[in-house]
Amino acid sequence: MIFVTVGTTIPFDGLLEAVDNCVARSVIDGPVVCQIGSGEYEPKHCEWFKYQPSIQEFVNRADLIIGHGGTGTTFQLLASDKPFISFANPLAAADHQAEFLARMASAYDIIWSRDPGELEALLPKARDHRPKPFAEPRLHDHLKAFLLS
Description:
This protein has six helices and six strands, in the order βαββαβαβαβαα. The chain has about 150 residues and is an alpha/beta fold. The chain has a single domain, classed as Rossmann fold (3-Layer(aba) Sandwich). Strands 3-2-1-4-5-6 form a six-stranded parallel β-sheet, with helices on both faces. The mean pLDDT is about 90.
């Protein structure tokens, strides 16, 4: 199963549409579950929901996760030891997700992009890719190091 999460506060319809198009064209086969948050796009070829108290059960069941570049989501995915692709949401303030993901990629070898249109090209690489393991998944230490660098 592929799980897609776009967060709950900032819409990311472009990513949801990219995933839905890949499913429609059979680039992605198998079940896909999307957490669409506050977005308006409702996938036509995937199961979806707006909100859940926790997405951890979906992360646990997924073989691959496609998500937005929020700090909480990124750290959760690193700690999960699952393959994932992150996309910087262009609606996030001051392009901070792209800046954050670029730094995380240099430290943890994550797969990320600014452009959901690159999803199809990134899928083959991501399916078996495992980022560097999280030595100590302590959010405040990583945020402090990020902010001081």
